[in-house]
Structure formats: structure tokens, C-alpha cells
Design a protein that fits this description.
This protein is of the alpha+beta class and 202 residues long. The protein has helices at 2-17, 24-31, 45-56, 75-84, 91-94, 115-133, 147-157, and strands spanning 38-39, 67-72, 96-103, 137-138, 141-142, 163-174. It has seven helices and six strands. Helix 3 crosses helix 6 (115-133). The model is unreliable at 3-8 (pLDDT under 50).
Length: 202
Amino acid sequence: MKKVVFLAILFAVFCVFGGEKMNETTKTIFNRKSVRNYVEATIGPETLEFLVKAGMAAPSAMDRRPWEFIVINDKAVIKKLHDALPYAKMVDKAGYAIVVAGNIEKQAGGKDSTFWIMDCSAAAENILLAAESLGLGAVWTALYPDPNRVKSAVEILGLPANIVPLAFIPVGKPAGTDKPKDKFNKEVIHWNHWTNTTKPAK
């Protein structure tokens, strides 16, 4: 039954966006979901590094690439983060995690800028998509801008003052219970002007 429902969702997405536009990249985008349920599995360091490499392929303001990545595969560190972060309790089952952080001294506009947030967000999304493409599960849990979560990550991971953790991404083998959502909404599309939501004729 679950497989039938999943195939129905894929078919609906296929119909909405047109079969001719679907390829491996767009399938990954539409199949991506926030995975909070995992089964025990081993993920090698090469695979985790590949996910980070995908993160580094993201765009950044003035190509400054102000990101840093803390890859976590130590169970003791996982336990500390599990206990400290209220919305990342699934990490103990996932078994692995990647923290995407910004180096404020490397970002465009200087240390008082906020370009690092956009740059690191793009990197985090790339990691999520890469995980989906490999059959892995991942979920973005926010650290920044919550001061308590940022403080916990800084202390547990030993981050220096110029490194601000943005996202904590548990990674693991999905249990298969989390499914993608159809988030398409025509009402938020505006053609050429804010008040115009009618698709122009070809």
C-alpha cells in the first residue's frame, strides 16, 4: 500500500510539471523529503565527504565560499548533540550528521555582513539533495538564529568565534516512512507584476 501511495504521488508530480521536464535532477528535487525516521546502517567517510563536496558546489556571494563543514561520525559526539538540541532527537537513530557553518571573516561584505547565511543555506540544500540522490535520508534542523542551539553546537564542537553554525543535518538510512510532499501552489506565482497571477499566453 505504501508503495502504491508513493507511486501515486510521483505520478501526480509528473502530471503537474509535465513528463518532458522530468529528469534525474528534477526527480531528486521533487522526491526530497525531511527524513526523521531511520534504521541502523553504516555510512562510510567517503560517502559523507561526497555529501560535503556537493555542499561546496553551491553558489556564494562573490564566490567567497564562507562555509565550513563539521562531519560527525563519533557516537559520543552524536549523543551530546542529541541531548543538547531539542529538534534533532532523530540523530541518534540516523547515526551521522553534518553541521554547515559560516566563516564570517570570509563572507562577502566583511564580518558584519549576513551573506554567509544565504551561502551556507545553498550549501545545506545541496547536501539534502545529494543525500536523496544516494538513497539516504537527511533533515535540516536549525541552529542559527536560536542562541541556545548555536551556543550548544559551538561548545560541543569547539568552534572558534568566527564560525557560526547554521544547520545541523542528521544523515542516515531512511526507514521509508517519510514521504515527499507536493508543495506546488499557483497562488504564490506572480507573472510580471505582483497583482497578476494569470499565466501569460504563449
